Amino acid sequence: MKNRVYILGYVPKEISKECENKFFAAKNTLTKFGYEAINPLDNLLDKSLSENAAKRKNLGLLAQCKAVYVLPCIIPEKGNIELKVAIDLNLIFINGFLNFELSIDKKMNPEILQIEEG
After folding, report:
1. I need a surface site. Which of 4, 42, 96, 103 has the fewest CB within 10 A?
2. First to last CA, the chain
3. d(CA 37, CA 113)
4. What does the angle CA 61 – CA 56 – CA 25 come to, to the nearest 5 degrees?
């Protein structure tokens, strides 16, 4: 099973193309490194889901992750519930403020995030 990483960043009420591009670029990069990247915009942009249903689905997905990839657009003081949940669940935080491809080191590979059974 691939390691799940939730992409965490500020999402405005009206999701812009720039916002979409940031999240989808992060997903592509994480996928390239062997992670199963969870992009919350997949649910938030799903027209078949209400906004509340999409948020609840995203929180459920976040709870199944071992780590979060924090985008530079995060605004902690805006009351980001996903950030609070990630901290409460003691998830691993991957720094998205740096270029992931340049900042990744040999210690932060997909094997480090293996979820142990039992």
Report:
1. 103
2. 15
3. 13
4. 50
Q: How far is 6 from 63, CA to CA, in rounded Å?
A: 9
CB atoms within 10 A of CB 49: 16
Q: pLDDT tens-digit profile of 37-54? A: 999 999 999 999 999 999
Exposure of 65 in the CB half-sphere (CA atoms within 13 A) = 31
pLDDT at residue 81, as a whole number? 87
Please give the structure tokens belonging to residue 54.
């999409």
pTM across the whole model: 0.79
pLDDT tops 90 at residue 78: no
**52 with 63: CB under 8 angstroms?**
no
Q: How far is Cα 34 from Cα 30, in angstroms, rounded to an integer?
A: 7
